[in-house]
Amino acid sequence: MPTSRDALYMPTPILTESAPISPKLTLGRILVVEDEDLIRDTIALTLSDEGYEVTTAVDGQQALARLQAAMNADRSSETALPDLIILDLMLPYINGLDICRWMRREGSSVPILILSAKGSEMDRVVGLEVGADDYLTKPFGMRELVARCRALLRRHQQFQPAQTEPTLQYQEVTIYPQECRVTVRGEVVNFSPKEFKLLELFLRHPKRVWSRDQLLEKIWGHDFIGESKTVDVHIRWIREKLEIDPSNPQYLITVRGFGYRFG
């Protein structure tokens, strides 16, 4: 049986359409333009859970207004241009093809993933020729959607100018992502690759509670074969390097019955 994460048309909570759904420290900004409430909310919730900051638009007119404002906004602004646009074709007021054409005419290289119930070869060709980067036919699975988003963002980032990634800091713990370096109370501390990735994930999402299964999927991957207790072992090792008293942690906290959070 498909789960709510795999299937598109299962009920989900109603989300606020205009407010960002995730904390600011995220994997990227995604704008979801879809007029069907259930599809839009399901996509938004799934991507938010994956670590993306998601905003939504219910029709083409609203989407175009936001994109026009974003063209003139600073990257740090809440209305800045997204890193990826998920765009339905059949929208009220202004259709998805026209939005796609406008984006490319304005010189934007933001990747665009088209969603459409039209799945013929000609429909896909038209969508790609007007400037879309990928085309996904409805109905579709959430895992496939997430995988396509990751691939589009990864390819797009490869062609962007190199930027110095800021440090991640929480109290006396600082991570330098590009250097794979960690300092604790001003001293450099060595972390294994898995420990570093876990710590980086926690610092990018302070206060968020992660279950063992979520941490295994994020750090070890879908194909990991082993016991979930490997997470507990790595958490203990990280505490020994971070905490003054590992038995009474102040940074990496156990939330009983749920998992772990940082801070």
Strand residue content:
15-25%
Q: Taking all residues together, what is the mean pLDDT?
A: 83
Largest sheet: 5 strands, parallel
H/E topology pattern: EHEHEHEHEHEEEEHHHEE
Percentage of residues in helical conformation: 25-40%
Query: What is the global morphology?
Result: elongated
State the strand order across the main sheet.
2-1-3-4-5
Number of strands: 11
Structural class: alpha/beta
How far apart the termini lie comes to 37 Å
Low-confidence stretches: 1-25
The helix count comes to 8
* Rg on CA atoms, Å: 20 Å
Give structural notes.
The chain has 8 helices and 11 strands. The chain has helices at 37-49, 60-71, 96-105, 121-129, 142-158, 193-204, 212-220, 229-242; strands spanning 29-33, 53-57, 84-88, 112-116, 134-137, 168-170, 173-176, 181-184, 187-189, 252-255, 259-262. The strands form 3 sheets. It has a 5-stranded parallel sheet, with helices on both faces. A 4-stranded antiparallel sheet has the order 6-7-8-9, with helices on one face. Helix 6 (193-204) crosses helix 8. The protein is elongated and about 60 Å long. 29% of the residues are buried. The model is unreliable at 1-25 (pLDDT under 50).
